[in-house]
Amino acid sequence: MRPDSPAELETAEQLLRQGDAQAALRHASAARADGTHEPGWMRLRALALAASGRAEEARALFAAYAQQRPQEADAWVNLGNACLDCTDGEGALQAFMRAGAAGAQGVPYLLGHGLALMAQGRFGDALAWLQRAQSEEPDAADVRLAHGQCLAELERYDDLAACVAAIDAAGLSFEQRTVLAWLLAHAGHEGAAQALFAELLAERPGASAPRVRLALLLERLNRVQEAEALLAVVGEVDTAMASMAALATARMARRRGEPGEAVLVLAPAADREGDPAMAAQLWFELAACHDRQQHADAAIQALARAHAHARRALRQRHPDLEQSQVLGWLRQRLHRPLPAPYPPRTGDPPDPVFLVGFPRSGTTLLEQMLGQHPALQVLDERPALERVIEVMRRAPGWRDDDLDGALARLDAGQHRALRAHYRDEVARHLPPGGRLVDKYPLYLTRASYIQWLFPRSDWLLLLRHPCDCVLSCHFQAFGLNGGALAFDSLESTARTYAAVMGHWEKQRVLAGPRVHTLRYEDLAAAPGDTVAALMAFLSLVPQPGQHAFHASVVERGQRIRTPSYAQVAEPVHVRAVGRWQRYRAHFSPGTLELLAPFVERYGYTLD
User: Fold this and answer.
1) Which residues are registered as beta bridge partners of 355?
2) Rounded-to-5 percentages of helix, strand, coil across the chain
3) How far is CA 269 from the centre of its chain?
4) CA-CA distance, 566 to 288, in Å (whole number)?
5) Interstrand relation of 458-463 and 353-356 (parallel, antiparallel or unpaired)
6) In a 10 Å sphere around its CB, with 0-12 CB exposed, 13-18 middle and 19+ buried, how is residue 41 labelled?
7) Nearest to 511 by CA among 334, 314, 304
């Protein structure tokens, strides 16, 4: 049989389908030696090279084949996948666009197009392609993994949890299981993530990717000693993991009180990192380390770099987001007092307690104290209420610019249904227990909705010196969302503070919540007395261990979903009180002018 005969080509293709890429390559080489230029052999050789990990050679052949067969959609799909294997996102996207023009359909095309967009950082655009791929083949693990990675980049963690829940790890490759473990951690399934990481390390003890990622997860769970032990035996780290390994090493150094060592690791990694999202994390960590060293100027300079990268990453994910949209929800406001509430139904649970305050005002600290009381159950920054508000805003005739009228048009039956919907949303995260404390700091901008839904709710408002709040927010990587714009300078953070707290002060008068106000400074200096007064407001008896909660933080087994996760693992202290004074030179006159009315209103000074 001639080596270039159709039967021989079919034999080689069968070998490739059976996973024997080397045998298929030998057949292709024999055909080429015989002088054949049959495109089918060129395609077969390219596929076999790709299956053998020889990505660059495969890409060259796929490109030549696609030029010979430009109307063949699969030719461009194969070229696009080869470009992805060569980390050429731009080339991949061009190939998948040509595939689409040639009429490509099906999951390989949809998945590849989505992956190419992700490689370009266009996660918002990629999402639609990956959703289509998953709808066509919902049981495909590779599709769900790609979809999950995209959702994680967009910080849609509830959707991520639903996406990865259906993935069976048993049939995945080592690399795919490493990705799945990381996605499980982001989705809030920390226990499952740890178990899968442990399985991976038992299989390949020297693999750096699962080891570094598990160390970062354990640090986030405040299990710092375990994380350090993992990093102590990390071998050679591949290029793709270098920045993540530097971040993990630096966090451990900072947490054991060696910020100088952390700076030495972080500085070169931050300078060379090209991905804006990862670069932002490195520069935020570098700023935290400079702050620990009392180097205020260096910290502010690092923050400028961090926020610049965060803005770039945000624009990749949300290119159409405008500055005016960042606080756009504040336009949903009352202009008249709320009408009389609907009466409660017999058997309804008590209305929740809402724990609010401007971000970085100490709400996580107070949450941990409240969580130690057996009569209370704390929901930690889960957007249950926002889900209900989304339903409310879909009501016929709803207008955000007429919140008074929109609420008045909702009847008693809708009121009952919306309250039940809220309880269902909470039940997704917490089993039934004591009185609910819904801790979500910026719910202080939702007073109108909450008081209409839960007129017998209690509110705990935590205040902190406005300058300390602003400085601390500017230091934080809140995520690649509107916060990247709201907090990207001290002045923009002050404008955000003034807008949010101004909204609260006006809306609380019209909505009429029952509020107990605390100050972070009092909570830090005298936790026992402060908590006792709070518990009296809630008609509860204080528990002896409420202000000595830090020992239980490590035992909880789940991430604390705020930037304060490390601080609340320590005993209560006053080190952060008045921290802004070290940075006073960086507070412009305009920034201080924005904050001055609130400094005075809340009983602080600028001295």
Assistant:
1) 439, 460
2) 65, 5, 30
3) 22
4) 12
5) parallel
6) buried
7) 334
User: Which residues, other chains included, contact 520 with Cβ-Cβ below 8 Å and sequence gap of 6+?
Assistant: 361, 362, 365, 462, 463, 464, 465, 468, 577
Listed in sequence order, the residues at least 6 apart from 317 whose beta carbon sits closer than 8 Å to its beta carbon are 121, 123, 124, 153, 154, 480
74: Cβ contacts below 8 Å, ≥ 6 apart:
99, 104
For residue 61, count other CB atoms closer than 10 A to its CB: 23
Which residues fall within 8 angstroms of residue 389, CB to CB, at 6 or more apart? 446, 449
Containing 436, the helix (H) or strand (E) segment is strand 435-439
Tokens, residue 476 = 């934080």
- The position carrying tokens 């104290």 is 369
Q: Report yes or no: 306 and 285 within 8 Å, Cβ to Cβ.
A: no
CA 289, 293, 297, 299: dihedral to nearest 10 degrees?
10
Measuring CA to CA, which residue among 566, 516, 185, 525 is closest to residue 368?
566
Lowest-confidence pick of 294-298, 311-315, 368-372, 559-563: 559-563
Q: Which of 212, 381, 480 is nearest to 220 (CA)?
A: 212
Strands 376-380 and 353-356, bridge-based pairing? unpaired
Q: Tokens 């008609």 identify what position? A: 539
Do 368 and 462 meet the contact criterion of CB atoms below 8 Å apart?
no
pLDDT category of residue 345 using cuts at 50, 70 and 90: confident
What are the phi and psi torsion angles at 276 (to 5°)?
-65, -35
> Sign of the C-alpha dihedral, residues 80, 82, 83, 89?
positive
Q: How many CB atoms lie within 10 A of CB 101?
A: 12
- Average the pLDDT over 115-130 and give the result: 94
Tokens standing for residue 237: 């780290």
d(CA 283, CA 48): 43
Question: 161: which 2 tokens?
Answer: 């949890």
Answer whether 598's CB lies under 8 Å from 402's CB. no
- SS3 of 221-289: the string is CCCHHHHHHHHHCCCCCCHHHHHHHHHHHHHHHHHCCCHHHHHHHHHHHHHHCCCHHHHHHHHHHHHHH
395 Cα distance to chain centroid: 30
Q: pLDDT by residue (tens digit) across 537-551?
A: 999 999 887 766 555
Identify how many contiguous H helices and E strands the chain contains and give both numbers.
30, 5
| pLDDT tens digits, one per residue of 266-280 | 999 999 999 999 999
**Residue recorded with tokens 């791929």:** 133
Q: Which pair of tokens denotes residue 414?
A: 């809708």
**What count of other Cβ atoms lies within 10 Å of the Cβ of residue 47?**
24
User: Quick one: residue 103, left, alpha or beta (phi over 0 = left, psi -120 to 50 = alpha)?
Assistant: left
Q: How confident is the model at residue 561 (pLDDT cuts 50, 70, 90)?
A: low
- Residue pair 439/357 in contact (Cβ under 8 Å)? The answer is no
Residue 386 has pLDDT above 70, yes or no: yes
Rounded to an integer, the average pLDDT of 487-499 is 95
CA distances from 187 to 158, 174, 381, 558 (A): 7, 20, 14, 11
E strand intervals along 440-502: 458-463
Specify the residue for token string 């599709």.
Answer: 143
